[in-house]
Amino acid sequence: MTDLFSPLQLGASTVPNRIFMAPLTRCRAGAEHLPNALMAEYYAQRASAGLIVAEATMAIEGNSSFWHEPGIHSAAQVAGWKLTTDAVHAAGGRIFLQLWHGGRACHPLLNNGAQPVAPSAIAITGDEVHTPQGKQPYVLPRELRDDELPAIVAGFGKAAANAKAAGFDGVEVHGANGYLLDEFLRDGANRRGGPYGGSLENRARLLCEVIEAVSSVWGSNRVGLRISPLNSYNSMIDSDPVGLATWLAGRLNDFKLAYLHAMRSDFFGLQKGDVMTPIRANYKGVLVANMGYTPDEAAAAVAAGKVDAVAFGTGFLANPDLPARIKAGAALNQPIAATFYSPGAHGYTDYPQMAMAACATE
Question: What amino acid positions are annotated as catalytic residues?
Answer without folding.
Answer: 179
